[in-house]
Amino acid sequence: MTRVDFGAVALVDDEGRRFEAIVRGRLMGHNKSLGNTVVVGDRALCAREAERWMVEGVVPRRNAFSRRASGTRPIEQVVAANLDQIVLVASITDPPFRAGLADRVLSQAEHAGVPARLVLNKVDLDDAHVADGLLEDYARAGYAGHAISARTGLGLDGLRHACRARRSLFIGHSGVGKSTLLNTLAPGLALIEGAVNAKTGKGRHTTTAAWLLKAGEGVELIDTPGVRSFGLWGIGSRDLEQNYPEFRRYLGTCRFGDCRHASEPGCALRAAVESGAVAARRLASFHQLREELMAEEG
Prior knowledge:
Layout: E1 3-5, E2 9-14, E3 17-23, E4 44-49, E5 52-58, E6 64-68, E7 76-81, E8 85-91, H1 99-112, E9 116-121, H2 130-140, E10 144-147, H3 156-163, E11 167-172, H4 178-185, E12 211-214, E13 220-223, H5 268-275, H6 280-297
Helix pairs in contact: 1-6
């Protein structure tokens, strides 16, 4: 499945042959929309009926990457399914790196059980060498990192190698250069590239639906619309700490069983920060995100 569009019509890829198929009404939700029934990356079961192809069902997913849909009601939005890795694309500047979104995406990837890596784009503009420190912090958390410039080609060979024989979901803030990057990794796709709004510093959306792109033998890249925010799904304030992988070895070893890792004496996690085993920015990000989740939970 490469793209879901037009309500009840899916664009199906069958070994390079693409065709539109109508999704059976019984597979759709109460409002007759696809919702989470058929998403990018699904293996669709199709049958020919008269002059039309029909989607009769979907093979059970081995994993799914979700987010909280925008709006006031808590609703799950399945972004893609059957993934080998999440590739979080961020930029050092224009727009600047935002730890809040990065750690939300990485936490959601942990929750989904999908490996993730961090790509820092526009390092050709990184005169202060900020990328080095960021990648070191996330390496301590266990995440592979890439410092690249999609514009100049710097660092792209390593990322290409990391995407071989994998289905990779690319996700990132609007304006970080994701479309430029994918155009470089898969020449000929001609994705529409956007620019950052000079007044707001935020990117303009250039991708309006998720696409599965085949960029060579065994290389599948899923392009997603640029995001301005990312709501967690299935993760609460009490279990958030389990989705920071570098925290796990210290959990349960604090002096107090209900330690919040803030100002309590004998906190093993704060001690790990002081020793350099855990990045201070990651603990600060955790506290901010947990407060946000607690506020949402009421």
